[in-house]
Structures are given as C-alpha cells and as structure tokens.
Inverse folding.
C-alpha cells in the first residue's frame, strides 16, 4: 500500500510557474505509473499528466508544452513543473499511483490547491 502527499501548491499570477511534488511511501514506488489530476470548482476531476515506470509521459492537450511531469525513484517522488500558468489551471491537484497499467489509479493523495489569478 502507498501513501501519497502532495506539496508545492499556492497562489500565482498568470504567466508564473509552480512545481508540485508528490512524495510516496512504500518500497515499490518505482513499479507504479504515476499521474497528476486536477479538479476545478464545480467540475469533475480531470487527467493532467502521467509518467510510466519507464519514464514515458502523457499530457492532456491543454497543458502540453507548459507542464512537465518527472519522477525521481531514489526519492520516491513525482513532480509536476507548471509554467506559463493560466487562470483555467486553477484547481486542486492530486497525484495518484497506478499499480497495473491501463487500470484504475489505486492510491491518491489529499490534493494541493493551485490558484492562478489574472
């Protein structure tokens, strides 16, 4: 079982940058695919980015070229570097761990708030 703790959120002006971190417990972190999701007020949670155990990445179209997901298996941590932030990026950002590729995400963090002001 894994526990995930996000950090790095906060208020930022449009055009600014933030780096989110997600620290995972457990010895099998390197075996998990990891993802970032976000939920804006009044909206459903949506996929933002993912990274496989082998480092392959995927992004929702709206963040391509602006966000970068990465992982450091030695530190059991996954990151989301967010540049050129827009007000529509505002929301609670969650990291998640996927044990079996192609199935549901099994473990979720508590979320960290990102607020982008115009």
């Amino acid at each position: 079982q894994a526990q995930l703790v996000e950090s790095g959120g906060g208020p930022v002006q449009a055009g600014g940058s933030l780096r989110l971190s997600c620290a995972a417990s457990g010895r099998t972190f390197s075996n998990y695919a990891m993802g970032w999701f976000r939920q804006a007020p009044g909206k459903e949670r949506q996929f933002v980015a993912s990274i496989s155990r082998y480092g392959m990445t995927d992004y929702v179209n709206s963040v391509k070229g602006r966000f970068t997901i990465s992982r450091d298996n030695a530190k059991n941590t996954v990151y989301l570097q967010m540049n050129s932030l827009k007000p529509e990026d505002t929301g609670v950002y969650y990291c998640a761990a996927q044990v079996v590729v192609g199935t549901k995400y099994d473990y979720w963090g508590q979320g960290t708030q990102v607020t982008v002001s115009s």
About this structure: The mean pLDDT is 95. The two ends are 40 Å apart (CA to CA).
